[in-house]
Amino acid sequence: MSSIAHLRDIADLTADDVRNLLSRAAFFKDALKHKKDVSHKHRGKVALSFFVENSTRTRISFEMAALRLGVSVINWDSASSSLSKGESFEDTIETLASIAPDILVMRHSEYNAPRSVARYMNCPVVNGGDSYRAHPTQALLDLMTIQEHKGDVSKLKVAICGDIAHSRVARSNAELLDLLGADIHMVAPEYLMPQELPYKNATAYTDLNEGIKDCDVVMMLRLQKERMTQGLITSDHDYFAQFGLTHERLEHAKQGAMVMHPGPMNRGVEIDDAVADDPNVSLIRAQVANGVPMRMAVLDWLLEKNEA
Ligand code: NCD
Fold it and tell me: From atom 8 of ligand 1, which residue's Cα is the shortest distance away?
């Protein structure tokens, strides 16, 4: 079982794997654009979509990616599942393993849940986000989006800004950008900055204007109030005044800098409407669109590896 390839976090990938995924994603993006049917690739395979935590874009784009590749999808539904009847998580996973999908895509609020689930499954497990720890496919589609607009990341300064402490997107992005040698600015108010930043190429900043200075890309993060237990944020208004991205603030970044956000956005909290909706600077829609070809690449790569 241990020889099965998974994508639980960025540590499952080498820099060569990342390049491989980027080129597969570019191929699928082109196929989608030209309406080329690639559903012969994995027809007859079945994916199980196991989202124990809410999601819009991640779940739907995985589902779209699977269907485009000819993979049928079973959607596990938390409300109608036996978990809601008191079945233990372990028993649920053993049940899913016995049903034997070809690949399992999951999201869970528990730290490192995909690692425990992968031990039971006889198929690849793809992490669609766990706790505040990891969201590797978001980082991959963000990387794809950055490189399409700004070129080789090893020559870029990328600012990751906002609620870093509670953000799996921040962690996976920092790990992936670090692996590829980007210069990373981690920008958060002190109370939302993790104590350790275990990345070779990252520097911490607590002031937004200073942190985005000269950056090619400014990635904003959602304020994750559902993960805050101690009322860290007193008012959305004060947070916006201190850390919200406006056009005026963006002037501190490099000329031509692009703005990203993984969504869902809290408009007027971490980002101003005028920035989020400005087609000259915002890559937010491009990120969502790239979710489909990048997730096609991930599913294709893991299914292919498992056939070998
Ligand atoms: C993020 C997530 O759920 O991790 N969104 C996403 O997947 N695009 C970020 C968030 O919840 O803020």
Answer: 262
